[in-house]
Amino acid sequence: MAKVVLVTGANSGVGLALCERLLDEGVHLCMGCRNMQRAETARSALLRSHPSAQVDVLQVDTSSTISVLRAAQEFKLRYHRLDYLYLNAGIMPNPQFDVKAFFRGLLTGQVIEMLATGVGILTQKDNVTPDGFQEVFATNLFGHFLLFRELESLLCGSGQTSQLIWTSSSNAQRSAFSLDDIQHRAGSQPYSSSKYASDLLSLALNTHYNQQGLYSSVTCPGFVMTNLTYRVFPSIPAFFWTLLMPVFWLIRMFTNTFTLTPHYGAEALFYLFKQKPEALDPYSKYHSLTSGLGYTYSEARKMDVDLKTSEALYEKLLQLESEEKRKLQDQQKTFDVRKQRSG
Ligand SMILES: NC(=O)C1=CN([C@@H]2O[C@H](COP(=O)(O)OP(=O)(O)OC[C@H]3O[C@@H](n4cnc5c(N)ncnc54)[C@H](OP(=O)(O)O)[C@@H]3O)[C@@H](O)[C@H]2O)C=CC1
Ligand SMILES: CC(C)CCC[C@@H](C)[C@H]1CC[C@H]2C3=C(CC[C@]12C)[C@@]1(C)CCC(=O)[C@@H](C)[C@@H]1CC3
After folding, report:
1. Nearest CA to ligand 2 atom 7
2. 34: Cβ below 6 Å to ligand 1?
3. Which end of the chain is less congested by CB atoms within 10 angstroms, N or C?
4. pLDDT tens digits, 86-124
5. Does ligand 1 lie within 6 Å of residue 124's CB atom?
6. Which residues are catalytic, by number?
7. Which option is the CATH number for 4-341: 3.40.50.620, 1.10.472.90, 3.40.50.720, 2.60.40.10?
8. Ligand nearest to the CA of 167
9. Is 0.95 topped by the overall pTM?
10. Complex ipTM, two decimals?
11. Which residue, judged by its Cα, is nearest atom 11 of ligand 2?
12. How far is it, in rounded angstroms, from Cα 48 to Cα 310?
């Protein structure tokens, strides 16, 4: 039987490139996307290169609790197994490029580190979702946590192993994250905070689920030219990025994190697909890297995470999950009562 793989954020960038590579392996692919039109366009493109492939679309907006719960319900009706869950959808809204910090980095010799991670040169302005969550936290982390929890029964089946694979980032930073403010309501680095939270959560999930055959890993695609990065300079036309390509190829001589294309960015995500999950290191992040000459490979690098903090975050997410579910039940009850009264 073909392995069933669900990929969120599958209609563009790293997610779409990963789908392309997974189809070469003969998987039964389910593309989790928020916009059905964009999803169908991407699905058609995948079917053009893999005409006999099994490719389905599942509507899911990871920033919305109700959408995630409905998507999981629909998934459980359609499939009886889930072997790989790629938690890839992500946003970095309203990014602000700090030109001064960039030039300071040039003078202090830290510019390569800055370009490799984006740390110090990028901040974001977050939004609040209709559910009342910080949008970056909800989209990148909490929605994925809920999705995983709802699909737990399919992932933790008897005698099989399954994998959760998070698209994190080298932009993840302990200093951007606080257990007292897991949604990052107060700061200006919600993206960094959400990615650090996914690193922590992955560790906690390994603690709690390895015995049930479920393994969680985190990846970083490197710096990839996608819609997410184009939005760093929204007023500048896309060809500007093409003009910068020679500069980026040059920078690649100094840092192997400039993978640049979605295909290369998906390297570590695809690498994990082919590994025995028991052999993976829960304390490492798997990076997609590209050498100066354009050779792409995957490398495990230790993360700055600890068990105690990961457990504390896990507990907070469980609590938030039960609060959300209670809120939805109450809303449903109120709705039912109103319906009864109106006859
Ligand atoms: N590009 C880079 O340099 C790096 C990217 N990453 C991570 O890689 C992942 C993929 O991003 P990338 O391919 O670069 O960027 P893209 O913008 O191309 O892809 C992001 C995907 O996530 C989807 N998405 C966004 N919000 C939601 C939502 N609320 N519900 C469901 N899907 C949603 C997007 O859908 P839609 O098309 O509808 O917007 C899109 O399919 C992200 O997690 C990102 O943080 C990590 C390190 C570096
Ligand atoms: C002046 C320079 C020649 C051009 C500036 C380019 C910058 C806008 C990019 C250089 C490094 C990029 C980068 C990211 C976004 C765009 C840059 C800052 C990320 C922060 C995107 C999201 C991630 O998760 C990080 C891993 C990326 C790190 C590099």
Report:
1. 115
2. yes
3. C
4. 999 999 999 999 999 999 988 888 899 999 999 999 999
5. no
6. 191
7. 3.40.50.720
8. 1
9. yes
10. 0.98
11. 115
12. 43
